[in-house]
Amino acid sequence: MNTVVSWRLAVISRRGAWVLGAVLLCGGISGAWAAEREALPMAGKTGLYQRVLTRPGAQLQPQPGTTASSGVALPPLSVLYVYGRQRVAGQDWLEVGAAARNGAQGWLPAPTAMDWKQTLTVAFARTAAREPTLFFRDHDGLTQLLESERLVPEVNALRSTIKTGQFPADFPVLAQEPDTYIDPNQQFYLLPILGFEELYLDTGHTTTLLNVAAVTLQAGEQDDVTKQAPAAATGKAAASDYRTAVVFVIDTTISMGPYIDRTRDAVRRIYNQLKGSPLGEAVSFGLVAFRDNADAAPGTEYVSRIVANLSDGRDPAEFMTRIATVKEAQTSNQGFNEDAFAGVYDAIEEIDWRGYAGRFIVLITDAGARDAKDPLGRTKLGAERLRLLAQEKDQAVGGGKIAIATLHLLTPEGKHTHAGAAAQYRALSRWGDAGELYFPVADGAVEAFGAQVDTLADALLQQIKGIRSGQMIAATDDPKATAVQRETARVGRAMQLAYLGRERGAQAPRLLEAWIADRDLLDPTQKTLEVRVLVTKNQLSDLQETLEAILKAGEGTFMTPKDFFGQLRGAAAALARNPNQVSQVQVGRLADVGLVGEWLDDLPYTSQMMNLTEARWLARSFAEQQEVLDAIEEKIRLYRRIHDDTDRWISLAPDAPKGEMVTTIPLDALP
Predict the structure, then answer these.
(1) Is the dihedral of CA 161, 163, 166, 167 positive or negative?
(2) What is the pLDDT of residues 110-151, one digit of tens each?
(3) CATH number belonging to domain 244-471
(4) In b/e form, how buried is each residue of 316-343, taking b as 16+ CB within 10 angstroms?
(5) What is the value of pTM for the model shown?
(6) Where are the domains of the chain?
(7) Which element (helix H / strand E) includes 536?
(8) Which residue of 239, 402, 500, 616 has the lowest C-beta tally within 10 Å?
């Protein structure tokens, strides 16, 4: 009988033992840490090196041609740099090591390793309205299933078989994704992409079939997937310490008084429901008030200010006292748009979210937001980048990603801004595959707004009650349910699954090689995977250094943009690794500075920003040039935050220097 393997591998736990393919190299092997050497560069590259992934049974030898019995066994899928290639007695050998510089440690027979030309890996999209991903033994098994006229019953039959634990000899599935979400920033796992193929489906959708590798535990260990019963069936969904934080970000400009009052009523209502209940400490509220640029309109008084922290919100009396001080402005700001993004930014960065598994920002406004292009905007951030900031917040301190819900008041006065503002807030409020928390309020009616706020608050309260009693939040497709109920349930379920994954230490699979689809087998509109890039600390530092050089050149030619590319050539020469190549440095686009171009050219990723040529740069307006520089500055801040987040960095080899510690970042985090 075949065994469908469970999810016990490919993860380095923050709490303990190594279970990912760490390169367990012995320091006594001859030739270790040879001085002043670099790994072999990839063809046509200067700062990217050849790397391999070890196969099962790989053994590190002191010299090429050595018998296998004398070597040091390496875990499958150890990530190693290649220092040399040599043919001995008709067999190819690789000199390898755990670091890119001065790290050669021994030799491997070439057949025991596989080239990894792109540092691409995949992570599972947040589990919400989809079934767990299935891992297939081979390409044909997955392809035949997707092209079958009986797709639905065949997929259902596969899942039913997995639940029974009785597997026929020809069962095509090796493993399935866990029921709970694995956060790659907390439970690091490596699923490198070895190959891929596009497949056109009869539904009109296109899915990508990915050949991925994964790391195994000790040889011989088996663990049937049926031993991991669904959380709801086992009662393990109960979470006595699950807590939710809701931070309101409220527009307090002129005419917003009725909405401020109605929000206050909704919070008071929740506090009254929780009075005397053991759930009283399970919910906390915060409040950030925002207006607009105070220099442009002095009567505005402030851009953004924190009225109540989450610590204040744990005390109903304290919170209600603080919220009572919030009043609408007495004078108008400049134009109709306001600095909503400043309020959201402060809610993300200035509020202490630690200790809360459920994290919600509720933005309430009747106007569009000043974005990166607006000279009156404080943050210089766009909606997409602000959302990315919320998703990357405090991943290392036991929390989850922050979801941003927007209640957009479609008042008649702001009619000319509705379309643009809706596009901004839809982008801001998107939350992975779980849904979009954008809720427009027709005509800005206070009564309709109040109903939305009450529904949202009630939904979150019911979620907490259910979670603490051991129930899984159920996504609903009830046609009678409101959009707030449907979307909040999807996001809440995803947050609950992420929490359970963290608490249980949910881990990735221990199979070695398999095929998966990047879309749900039965619902191709649902993404199952996101592509991420494996980066070392050194590589992230190089990217940051490059972007800082570009930013400095842009700021230095503020009044003379025609000199920008001249400054870039000097920066590129200063960053050149090989002094002999300084005179050969050419800068035809931003990506030619430092290592950025080498990174991007080999990835399935197109950067309009980094592909800017001198002609395209000069054809841009001043505002458009400033937008590019603002975006670069945002990336620099993001890289600093990732670099300084010590808990998200993993060493794939005990002997490797700190600069070779790795993490993964989404493709859209690249410049």
Answers:
(1) positive
(2) 988 888 776 777 888 765 567 888 889 888 999 999 998 899
(3) 3.40.50.410
(4) beebbebbeebebbeeebebbbbbbbbb
(5) 0.53
(6) 31-115, 244-471, 534-669
(7) strand 529-536
(8) 616
